[in-house]
Structures are given as C-alpha cells and as structure tokens.
Amino acid sequence: MNQEPPIEPALRWRRFVAVGDSFTEGLWGKPDPQGRPTGWADLLAAEISARRTAAGEEPLEYANLAVRGRLLRPILTEQLPAALRLEPDLVSIIGGGNDILRPTVDVDTLAQSLEAAVVRARATGADVLLATGMDAKDSPVVRRTRSRVGVFNAHVWSIARRHGAFVLDVWGMRSLRDWRMWASDRIHLNPEGHARVAHAALETLGLDADREWDAPLPPAPPVSRLAATRSNIRWAREFAIPWATRRLRRRSSGDLVTAKRPEALPLDGDRSPR
Q1: Domain ranges within the chain, ordered by starting residue
Q2: For range 164-172, the mean pLDDT
Q3: Which CATH architecture has domain 9-217+224-266?
Q4: Is the predicted pLDDT of residue 231 greater than 90, yes or no?
Q5: Are 28 and 189 a contacting pair, CB within 8 Å?
Q6: Tell me, what's the pLDDT at 152?
C-alpha cells in the first residue's frame, strides 16, 4: 500500500508574528538593508519561508512587534492584541527578562499573566512558541537573577505542557555560555548567538536544523588580567553606568522605539540562519 509522503512541517504555518523585548527584536543582530537588526526570530521566519517557497507554496507572512526594554505587561497588553489581530497561525510570546532584573518582581504573578496570554492565543487556533530565560551563571552582572529565572522557567515548561505550546530551551543552550556569542554590552546576543538560537528554534518547532547549533566554539586565546580589567572598565563606562542611569530615571532604551515590522508581510529573499 502506497503511503503519502510526509508533509514538510514548515508548511503548516502561513503567518508568523513575534512579540517580546530586545531578545526578539534582535538587538545587536546583523543589520538588514534598512538598518534594522536581524535577530533569531527574523532568521527563523526567513528559514520557514524559504522552505515554503521551495515546496511551491507562498512565502511566509511575518511581523515582528517586539521592542527593546519592554516589560511583560505591555508585551501582553499592547503587542499581543495587535499580533492576534493579524490572525497568525504561529506566534512567539517571549518576555519577562526585564521584569526579572528587578529584585522585587513577583515571578508567580508574571507566570500567571503569561499563562493567560497563552490561553488567549491558543484559543485562536495559533501555535505558540515560548522560551526559557537564559542561564546567567557566568555573568557577574545578572547572575543574581539566576534563581528567579529558574522559577520562571519552571512555570514556562508547565504552561507549555498544559496548553500545548512549544518551548525554546535557551537556558539549556551550552553554546551561549561562551562570551563570544554575546554583544559587547554583555546582555544581548551578537549575530552568531542569534543564529544559534534560530537553529534551536527550528528544532523546537520540529523542523530540521543544523545539528552544530549547540556545539562549542574553538578555545579562545588567553586574555591577560590587564586586558580583562581594561575591558571591564570600558564595559562599565559604555554600558553598565548608562543602563543604571536610565533605571534611576525610570527610562528605557525603547521609549522612542516602535516595532520594526508591524505588518505581516510576505518575506522575500533568503536570510537563512547562517
């Protein structure tokens, strides 16, 4: 008895909308021709679209509503309703990292808000992609948030199980423990880091991905103590102090930033993860 050939999983999605903060906006990713950063979500969308067109289907329609600096509440109350109005069949809902930087955050309340959002999105028939927070064990700046991130991650996995969502396991990506995957601000991914996350997302969604996405880079050359000290001083001057100043003034790097791709338009061209 002849069997029908398996359907390419990428063909199940016609329209993908991403919401979130700087992680999903793609901050520090490679600039596109318009000067906008190309992050993991953009690379994921491009790869899904390329697989659709290779199979003779229309390109993927894609919108990215994520804006740097956003807390989870505005992501869920402003971006998500706008995303659902675009009627996606795949939506990524990733946020909470900026909240968790605050020592007084109630992680359980964050999780309750996230779960309500997932329920709302799933009720439309859309597939939902969530993500764990990153493991900040090796970061001298944000490692104090590690326990809060761990609790939030446990909630994310439970929410996904209860509502049939996908989970991008960023915490488990060993390759991201290498500082060469990070931008000079030590908070955001660089283009290589975004590419690795894009491949991890492909695999999370059940699509074939480059199996080297979590492979370690070759050993880095040794850095002298003097060079490391100078690097730390430069980082504090250029990034840490300005960030702390914005926090004290209750301002955000994204106060004047709008979504880079507010409409779900067909993707053209090939911007694969590598």
Answers
A1: 9-217+224-266
A2: 97
A3: 3-Layer(aba) Sandwich (3.40)
A4: no
A5: yes
A6: 97
